[in-house]
Design goal:
heterodimer, A: mainly beta, six-stranded mixed β-sheet, four-stranded antiparallel β-sheet, 12 strands, B: mainly beta, seven-stranded mixed β-sheet, globular
């Protein structure tokens, strides 16, 4: 069965610093890969997704992620973090549009001044 | 497009009562997923439907939980009787088969508290 590992439960970064959130997956084939963000009390908002092609994908809010097949990773990055980026971030994998996503446990991001 | 619409946003009920959560998927989407989110277990899939047909309900915790999708624009998740351990946020999501561009869209969730 596929699984998703987000090794960092909680990360704190300074405003303006760069950010990288890690995500590793276990799957027999290359799945569809997603990053979602959840602010407190809110639903999940899609940041970006990878299906095929260019392994560096751009998303909303200045985020990007890079798919590395050899490492089974799909890490999320942002060059300069803003205080409003403080939230919970979830990596997810799926097979196609009609099968469920499997989520990691999430990484909580705190941003300090 | 109004997105995936869930109701109610918040529900507080007493143990033993019946609870019904509702979801309206995005028009044209043909897959619907119910997830539950708790601090301890994260996001868990409860059940999903393709073209209104339940495909996998192995995530439904007990017989107290049931879900229906009578048509393409509406689904319900029912808990009867409810228990305090059912307290969680329940999310509904919809997607379109083969639509690489759309991905999965989530509703805002229903926060259920059973006292």
């Amino acid at each position: 069965a596929q699984s998703v590992t987000q090794p960092d439960i909680h990360i704190t970064v300074s405003e303006g610093a760069s950010l990288e959130l890690r995500c590793n997956y276990s799957y027999g084939a290359t799945p569809y890969l997603f990053w979602y963000v959840q602010s407190p009390g809110q639903g999940l908002q899609l940041l970006l997704k990878y299906f095929s092609g260019d392994t560096l994908v751009q998303g909303i809010k200045g985020f990007e992620a890079e798919f590395k097949r050899s490492q089974s990773s799909f890490n999320l990055r942002k060059p300069s973090v803003h205080w409003s980026d403080a939230a919970e971030y979830f990596c997810a994998v799926g097979l196609s549009g009609n099968t469920p996503l499997v989520f990691g446990k999430g990484t909580r991001l705190s941003v300090i001044a | 497009d109004a997105g995936v619409i869930q109701s109610p946003r918040h529900e507080v009920t007493e143990m033993g009562q019946e609870v019904t959560l509702r979801c309206k998927p995005i028009s044209g989407h043909n897959s619907l997923f119910w997830y539950r989110q708790t601090m301890m277990r994260g996001l868990e899939l409860l059940i999903y439907f393709n073209n209104n047909v339940p495909i996998d309900d192995s995530g439904m915790p007990e017989d107290r939980f049931s879900a229906k999708m009578p048509n393409a624009s509406f689904s319900t998740l029912k808990i009867q009787p409810s228990e305090p351990r059912d307290s969680a946020v329940y999310f509904c999501a919809s997607s379109l088969t083969g639509a690489k561009g759309n991905g999965y869209t989530f509703g805002s969730g229903t926060r259920l508290t059973v006292v």
